[in-house]
Amino acid sequence: xxxxxxxxxxxxxxxxxxxxxxxxxxxxxxxxxxxxxxxxxxxxxxxxxxxxxxxxxxxxxxxxxxxxxxxxxxxxxxxxxxxxxxxxxxxxxxxxxxxxxxxxxxxxxxxxxxxxxxxxxxxxxxxxxxxxxxxxxxxxxxxxxxxxxxxxxxxxxxxxxxxxxxxxxxxxxxxxxxxxxxxxxxxxxxxxxxxxxxxxxxxxxxxxxxxxxxxxxxxxxxxxxxxxxxxxxxxxxxxxxxxxxxxxxxxxxxxxxxxxxxxxxxxxxxxxxxxxxxxxxxxxxxxxxxxxxxxxxxxxxxxxxxxxxxxxxxx
Length: 315
Known about the structure:
By secondary structure, this protein is α/β, with parallel strands linked by helices.
């Protein structure tokens, strides 16, 4: 997803998208990440992006693993696994000013808190704002990404106020073909996305099926309903007014839009990698425990995924 965002923003910068307003015009786009064959391929050849209609094009993107290259950035969008949040941004903390905005579009809960802690430097840190996206993409080879699902992106602040800068960021992303809305209830949106992830990810991971199966298989539908109902109850206990049917409709929409996708949790298990279970279903379990709410389905899938992580699939 980070590569898709960088490619979209770089393309918008090259085409002059958003030129009607200098405050929303991308002036420089950098893809920062750890050294890897993927990053090296992008730095050398650009991003090979395959669109949903099958068309492919190459977009030049500046890619770097040097944190000093990020100095002067006004906006940093974080799209890494939740468990890697602090580690990934800590090298940037001496290069970001207190006026910069760091926007998390990650899955799960707790990312903003990790960012605020990791980015504190000499007693100050940049603004940390929240967002969620239902866009989807997969890496197919080093330097190559396929856009696999259209979706919505919403962004907001810890407080409910939608200020001018938040609207400007939404306009910048929208101009880059990432339709984005600035909202005054971002915490509700975060929990809505959390509930959808909590339903789809562990079910598809444990069943070993692509996303479409949670819409087509009655048993998996029932499992999703149990998980989503529990997540909604916890969200409502937080005063977020989340509706179970709304979440289930969103689950169906995501399963339709990304039918051929294998969820990131399934892919992680298949590759023997750490999943985001603790930031998704595990986070629901922790919040439920604090509020005295029983969430047995979420507790069960959390335990099962953790057990699978400890016993990776043998090739």
